[in-house]
Amino acid sequence: MKIIQKALAMVGLLSLCALFIYALQDAPTDENFETKLINDYNIYALQIPEDLSFAGEPVPLQNPDILERMDRELLVNTYWQSNGLLMFKRAKKYFPIIEPILAKHGVPDDFKYLAVIESGLTNAVSPAGAKGVWQIMPATGRENGLEVNSNVDERYHLEKATEVACKYILKAKESLGSWTSAAAAYNAGNAGISRRLEEQGVTDYYDLLLGEETGRYLFRIVALKEILSNPKKYGFNFREKDLYTNIPTYKVEVDTAVTDFTQFAKRFGINYKILKLHNPWLREPHLNNRSRKSYLVEIPKEGFYSYN
Q1: Under a CB-based contact definition with an 8 Å cutoff, are residues 220 and 245 in contact?
Q2: What is the residue range of the signal peptide feature (predicted)?
Q3: Are 261 and 272 in contact (CB under 8 A)?
Q4: Which pLDDT band, with edges at 50, 70 and 90, does 41 fall under?
């Protein structure tokens, strides 16, 4: 009996030793943790396409300086994954509004990527006072027919702001001769780009020595165009239902003052927040409208929002 007990004890001891050894082998040691990390997440150098272009105008990648600058922007925007994924989501929502307006004015479709780098397709506000998806300055907005004041600021009206952006781009193209230079002028101004070209005795944006922001500008646009056009190639994975979409709306004409937009919104079965989400150009909780101007206010169709 004692022999059997000793044998069983030995078996138990060996079993415990085996479990202990197995546990040690499977434990997250520095070595196997690093191996797992390396296998799960890899950073790769990118293969730069040979035929990158903007608005049909090729990027001169045979120039080593141009190649390095293009590589930088592709790397930065590929491996800033959270921001990249947001761009895909917002593009699905806003590109269908922007694209037909560009086409109507004969502005190349690639300029929609300019809006991406200007604002991230949000109603951004710059330190210099530029506002909206197209980052329009107050004077530029007013010169091109937008109402810009503390009560109504149509730089936040995507359709109207896109119309103004088209006018600016077309004027720059006529003045500077190429779409690439026109895009650069959106950042640095027509006069700024024209002066630099003359001072440096060149005719092409890619031959200019520029400051950091304008010097990176076209490369950032082209990088976002390449990435947003080829999500799988750059490692972005999503389903169609993961992307943002526009809520269907109808327009209500308003040609009088509105004293209280909270009460106005309730008339259409929505709240003030939802009214402002669809009409960010209405900057205050009321509309002055002393001139009895006609405004079109967007109201979401019934059933797309629920709130208490």
Answers
A1: no
A2: 1-23
A3: yes
A4: low
